[in-house]
Specification:
Largest sheet: 9 strands, mixed
Bound molecules: pyridoxal-5'-phosphate
Oligomer: single chain
Number of helices: 11
Radius of gyration: 24 Å
Mean pLDDT: 93
Order of helices and strands: HEHEHEHEHHEHEHEHHEHEEEEEEEEE
Shape: elongated
Helix content: 25-40%
CATH class of the largest domain: Alpha Beta
Length: 389
């Protein structure tokens, strides 16, 4: 972003801001990112929005309308009911295996309205036989039929079945108890593809390998369990770092992503360069000092200084200072979540009640820390509630 963008944003915040740290969404950039993503998605790949990365109902609504999808991936149980309440046709795939202790009260307290809302589809993620038996017992107790999506390990080694024997055992159990369990698909997350050092393996190669592992499980399913293998199975993969690779060629029919629509800095990847950051933190300036004063190191104050010191309201977020340019925390002074000290270049014209701006490294770590998103559009701010932790 250009300096004049942040100067204008500062002026608008000085007139309309809250004087507390604010999480800003640049609406035009978010819409631009959505347009771009829509233009790249092939018809056979259905988009699934990752709720933790876009943790605001309004953010999700906009993306859902634009991409014409009510598929969601949910990672936090309290958010399940919120999504179900907002999106009547939601197809929800859990992004992690939920402990049975969390699932039980969910079904016990499910409102009558949601119980009869058979339009909403929930796919529970299962990674091993023990857990599947727990879900089976719950289904028998409550007389339910649960949709089961099996997590497969395609190389990330975070979870999921890692071998044929375990996979087959899960499928057999689903087949045996078909009145209580229904196979709804597979999920293979390939975040390692973009993260491995290139010297170890090229992203293309590790993507191909993860796709081959996926294909291997798909073939076992189709050949050994033809009665579980139906047209509507959801073969989920993703997310943001491999979005472009999936768009070019993918074994999946369902693609989860979220973060790249806001483009925090962890997603500064070559193949996502057409997307821009849409999320900023604005921190009000409380004090400006001619130079940083390090307790116990008064002698340093007599040396020439290249920076002045400012203290801001808040700090120590998972985010990088981005404006004023070349601002940074002081290595010796350390970090503070309450009033962080920041070194700002001496020539920078900055005053108390101005703002500094930060770019989050992740959206999932930052959005739940703020009660509202301040949606910046044509010089004005709308307020959107966030989904808290
Ligand atoms: C299972 C799974 N799928 C997809 C994603 C992608 O989300 P994002 O695009 O926000 O990185 C994640 C992120 O953690 C994930 O855990």
């Amino acid at each position: 972003m250009q300096s004049n963008y942040f100067q204008q944003l500062t002026q608008d915040l000085k007139q309309q801001g809250t004087g507390t740290p604010q999480l800003i969404l640049d609406l035009k950039t978010y819409q631009h990112n959505l347009d771009y993503v829509q233009s790249k998605l092939p018809a056979k790949l259905k988009p699934r929005l990752v709720v933790k990365s876009l943790a605001s109902i309004q953010l999700l609504k906009l993306a859902s309308e634009k991409l014409n999808s009510q598929r969601f991936m949910v990672f936090h149980l309290p958010q399940l009911a919120e999504i179900m309440g907002t999106f009547p046709q939601a197809d929800i795939l859990l992004g992690k295996p939920m402990p049975i202790q969390a699932v039980k009260p969910f079904y016990q307290t499910l409102s009558e309205q949601n119980k009869t809302n058979d339009q909403v589809n929930i796919q529970w993620l299962i990674d091993d036989v023990e857990r599947l038996k727990q879900y089976l017992q719950l289904a028998q107790e409550l007389n339910l039929k649960l949709n089961i999506n099996i997590e497969i390990d395609v190389g990330l080694h975070r979870g999921g079945v890692s071998g044929q024997a375990q996979f087959v055992a899960l499928l057999k159990l689903i087949q045996q108890y078909s009145s209580y369990l229904k196979l709804s698909g597979l999920m293979g997350y390939d975040a390692h593809v973009a993260k491995l050092p290139k010297i170890l393996k090229s992203p293309d190669k590790s993507y191909q390998q993860s796709q081959q592992i996926y294909q291997h499980y798909k073939t076992i399913l189709q050949q050994q369990f033809p009665d579980l293998s139906h047209e509507t199975l959801c073969f989920n993969g993703g997310g943001s770092p491999t979005f472009m690779q999936h768009c070019q060629q993918s074994i999946c029919n369902d693609l989860a992503f979220g973060s790249m629509l806001l483009k925090p800095s962890d997603f500064d990847l070559e193949n996502l360069s057409a997307l821009s950051c849409a999320l900023w933190i604005a921190g009000p300036i409380l004090k400006v000092l001619p130079c940083s004063q390090i307790p116990g190191l008064g002698l340093l104050n007599h040396l020439p200084h290249k920076y002045k010191a400012v203290f801001i309201y808040g700090g120590y977020w998972r985010a990088d200072y981005i404006y004023p340019k070349k601002s940074q925390p002081h290595v010796l002074y350390g970090r503070s979540s309450n009033q962080e000290m920041l070194q700002v270049p001496m020539q920078c014209d900055i005053h108390v009640d101005d703002y500094v701006f930060l770019r989050p490294t992740q959206s999932e770590a930052i959005i739940p820390k703020f009660a509202q998103l301040y949606v910046y559009t044509e010089g004005k701010f709308l307020q959107w509630q966030t989904l808290r932790e």
